[in-house]
Amino acid sequence: MACVAIIAAAILAQVLTPRELMARTAASMDLQKIIPQNFGTWTLVPSISPVTPTEPEGYVQPDRFSAKIYSQEVARGYSDGRGNIVMLLVAYGPVQNYRLKSHRPEICYTANGFRVSDKYKSQISYRDGANPIKLTRLTTQRETRLEPVSYWMRVGNDIATGPVESQIIRLKYGLRGMIPDGALVRVSTIGLSPEASFALQDKFIRDLLAAIPPEELKFFIGTPG
Predict the structure, then answer these.
(1) Among 186, 107, 195, which residue's Cα sits nearest to residue 150?
(2) Bridge partners for 93 per DSSP
(3) Which of 2, 62, 155, 182 is 20–30 Å from 162 (CA)?
(4) Which residues lie closer than 8 Å to 43 by C-beta, 6 or more apart?
């Protein structure tokens, strides 16, 4: 009976193993072109370099590992013309399975020497009549650099606000035989209080999504709600 159970489990695992990639046309998108350099009152600041995804100490060959996770990455800084700077990171991964999954900013910032605190879930209404986007907010600090962060992770057509939700979403697609792709969208600010930072970031997110071509919007926000 034990042998039968083992064989049955092995067969079931093989049958339920996801094989169909959702990446489709998203893998051929050029994020450098889709994300505008100037929009609304925001202009590109080439000298700004946001914190980029990395592995905590202890991983072997982090550059090779990270390259498997993200096939495209856009890291930019924007000015609103009033002296305020918002940093944007958009990273795309064609395969978001249990081993290769998007790096959460909590891990990324910690690996870069930041202390992470005050994490909570929120949402933003980016357009009248549209379902709000769920996102996560947190505050990071390294020495005197205070950097509040807002981010969301798209897994397939869904938005995840944490690792448990990400796993549930991946399981949902896995039961359909599909391997979801994913995107990390992150904005952060330096030089402002958390309250002022999050208000500025919300304005930036609304302006950015309003400037994205409608046919490309699903890449960033999936299907909210």
Answers:
(1) 186
(2) 182
(3) 62
(4) 37, 78, 79, 81
Q: Where are the beta strands (DSSP E) in 45-124?
A: 72-79, 85-93, 115-124
Q: Is 143 left (phi over 0), alpha (psi -120 to 50) or beta?
A: left
188: closest CA among 151, 138, 149, 136?
149
- The 3-class secondary structure across 126-144, one letter per residue, is CCCCCCCEEEEEEEEEECC
Whole-prediction pTM value? 0.80
Q: How far is CA 40 from CA 68, 78, 82, 213, in A?
A: 34, 11, 13, 14
| Mean pLDDT computed over every residue of the chain | 80
Q: What is the pLDDT of residues 159-195, one digit of tens each?
A: 988 888 888 988 998 898 888 888 899 999 999 999 9
Q: pLDDT tens across 122-171, in order? A: 999 988 888 899 999 999 999 999 999 999 999 989 998 888 888 898 89
User: Where do we find the tokens 């938005």?
Assistant: 159
Phi, psi of 140 (to 5 degrees): -120, 150
Tokens found for residue 145: 């650099």
CB 93 within 8 A of CB 70: yes
Residue type, 45: V
pLDDT digits (tens, 9 = 90+) for 104-115: 888 889 888 999
Separation of alpha carbons 27 and 181, rounded Å = 9
